Amino acid sequence: MITLKEALKLKKEELKELKKDIQKKANENKKLGGYIEQFLDRELSELGDGVPVAIKDNINVMGWEITCSSKILQGYKSPYNATVIEKMLANNLSPFGRCNMDEFAMGSSTETSYYGKTLNPFDEKRVPGGSSGGSAAVVGAGVAIAALGSDTGGSIRQPAAFCGVVGMKPTYGRVSRYGLVAFSSSLDQIGPITQNVEDAAILYNIIAGFDPKDSTSANVENKKVEFNNKKLKIAVIDNYIDEADEEIKGAILDLINELEKEGHTIIHKTLMNSKYDVATYYVVATAEASSNLARFDGMRYGSRVEGKDLKQTYKLTRAQFGDEVKRRIMLGTFVLSSGYYDAYYLKAQKVRHLIKNEFDKLFSEADLILTPVTPTTAFEFGSKKDPLEMYLSDIYTISVNLAGVPAISLPIAKDKNNLPIGVQLIAKHFDEQTLFDGAKIVEDLVK
């Protein structure tokens, strides 16, 4: 597949042919299930005549059906564009194809989608990751040039690692959330999923910047990323690497040796046990989700199931949520309830502050932090029977969202089953420049 950098040089007629080619590939590879249109036997959704970029199904595109891969939003058509879509259209990029996802971005495998599961492009028996599994799969399979995803606790970086592509989560507030259907408002960020680091920087440069429509948007200087080849001080998180599978551990240790040979300074550090990150995340995220998803009641959006009275209509309509969404709404409502708010939600906010302080301390000593993205490579469908077991696939990515710092996942090797192994780089707040510099250095080393 042509890169985003190359596609931006094409003329209008060539872009039309490119879209036809992507449509043809999507039709030929329907079982991948990366695009929602592949399940519905439709042509890929399209807006504008620029370079085609696939869009996760929770980002509003005017005139498109936007459902967050949920039964409850079937039939809802967006009346407006998200800010990131407006920025894309202004820079010769065209939304092209709705990407499958875990329902309301709740999941780590894209198995909770109402439409069906997306397959991993490297092994059809394995998951593509989630919740942006469709976005990562279409780029990894060569059925998209690039895609947008959203990241609440690793939902861009984990599927990018599973599908052998680059996935980047910007600093919280760097990219507008206006037009993104909220899961957890203090954690969600839109970011690029691309074939390489340079394409990720191009797409990031286009979508980043202050937006007065978004109250969480940061009104800070936003310089375009331009690559610099500089020597970096990188903090390696030893306890995270030791906990990962042997093949992931080996690949990362090899990378660390190569970085040292190139003259980069490596310092060895530890972070708080990741079980505290998981516990904190699932209290904060579910609490915010229970509040955000209250609006989906059949009165204003999507699919309504009529009952004999208003109460029954609410019950029948909201029964359309999938099991994972119901589980998280119930958990979130519980931690916010009288008598439990202090014991759970307030305590989680205090631990979140400790996690942020840990990152601040590390960044006083290093330019970047290096960790695995996931403890294993892509797992098989159905192998995670317990929801708690599924939640642990995000143990290395969750803390980044809790702290609000930027991070990137990129492929560095393959395991014995030919599955991609990713590495995660993390930078301090609003230092996407150093993050991309480090990612390009790593990408050049492993080519």
Could you explain how this protein is built, in words?
The chain has 447 residues and is α/β, with parallel strands linked by helices. It has a domain at 4-207: Amidase signature (AS) domain (Amidase signature (AS) enzymes). The protein has 16 helices and ten strands. It has helices at 4-7, 12-28, 36-40, 83-90, 133-140, 157-163, 197-207, 238-243, 246-261, 274-292, 310-318, 323-336, 341-363, 387-391, 398-403, 432-446, and strands spanning 51-56, 93-99, 146-151, 166-169, 189-194, 233-237, 265-269, 368-372, 407-414, 420-426. It has a ten-stranded mixed sheet, sandwiched between helices. Strand 1, helix 4 and strand 2 (93-99) form a beta-alpha-beta unit. Helix 10 packs across helix 12 (323-336) and helix 10 crosses helix 13 (341-363). The two termini are 17 Å apart.
Features:
about 450 residues; alpha/beta; Amidase signature (AS) enzymes; ten-stranded mixed β-sheet
Structure in a nutshell:
By secondary structure, the protein is α/β, with parallel strands linked by helices. The protein has a domain of 204 residues: Alpha-Beta Complex (Amidase signature (AS) enzymes). Helix content is 39%, strand content 13%.
CATH class of one domain: Alpha Beta
**Gyration radius over CA:** 21 Å
Shape: globular
Name the CATH superfamily classification of one domain: Amidase signature (AS) domain
CATH-derived architecture of one domain: Alpha-Beta Complex
Uncertain stretches: none
By CATH, the topology of one domain is: Amidase signature (AS) enzymes
Q: How many helices does DSSP assign?
A: 16
Largest sheet: 10 strands, mixed
Beta-strand segment tally: 10
Q: What spatial order of strands do you see in the largest sheet?
A: 2-1-3-5-4-9-10-8-6-7
Proportion of residues in extended strands: 5-15%
